[in-house]
Structure formats: C-alpha cells, structure tokens
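Illustration 12: Protein JTB.
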Amino acid sequence: MCIRVMESDCRIPMSCLRPRILALHALFWGLVSLRVFGAALLSDEKTAVAVTKAMTAPCWQLEEFVVAKECSVCEGLQLKTIPACSQTGFIEKINCTKSNRDEYKSCRSTKMEEHLFWKFEGTMLALTVVFAIIVVIRQRSLDRQASDKVRRQIESI
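Figure caption equivalent — predicted structure in token form:
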C-alpha cells in the first residue's frame, strides 16, 4: 500500500518479474483455467453417463428399501464374492420394496467410525503439540535476537 511516496515505489517489484516467477504464474493460472474448462466438459459427459447408470443402478438407489440384516463385518468368502464388501469391509442386507429383491449394500460401522474419529483426534492433538513447540522455540529465538540487538545498541553508546 502506497501513501504519498514516489510513483516508482507503487509499481510491481522487479523480483516479481523474474522469468521463473512469471513461468510459475503462467503454470498456475494455466492449471486453474484447465480445471475450470475441464469441469465444464466433464459435466456434459456425466449427464450421458447418469442416464446409462440409472438403467444399471442397484434397486436401493432407485426405490425404497428395508434393512434385512444390520451392518456387519464381511467374512472371508464374502469379501471375494460380494462387490459391496470391497468398499468399506462392512455390508448390510437390504430388501427393495417394489421389486422385492434382496441385495447387499456397503455400509459404515459405528466401530469403524469411532476408530477413525479417535485417530483424527490423536493426529490433531499431536499436531497441536508439535506446532506449539515450534512456536515456543521461534519465540525464544526472536526474543534472543531482540535482546542481542538491544545489548549491541547499548554497548555502542
């Protein structure tokens, strides 16, 4: 921000005009625009895929269903024979009401959710401790530098 200084002080610094920085800016904005335009192109493809997917979708995505067997861990043979087991390792048996078909649906166990929650909490606690230590070390370093600067200024008098 410029406040009543020379006009040349308000311009873009020369360090920002280095070829490496300009190339990085061009790369960044190129990737951003590619992502935006790519998303627009993909949305057209997704609508076509959604129409074909509706024809092959499982019954529980298209109609009402009743849970016949609660969420449970997949056993050895189920892991190989039921595709829904490979997603989370847990399945529930459901009965679709209109078509009266029995199918398996992947589900998330409360035990698994609790395990993931505590894993996340532990990670956040560890990161908090690490960054608190880094802040204390940095603050001590800055305090030492300020103290040395004041000491040198006093000694020079």
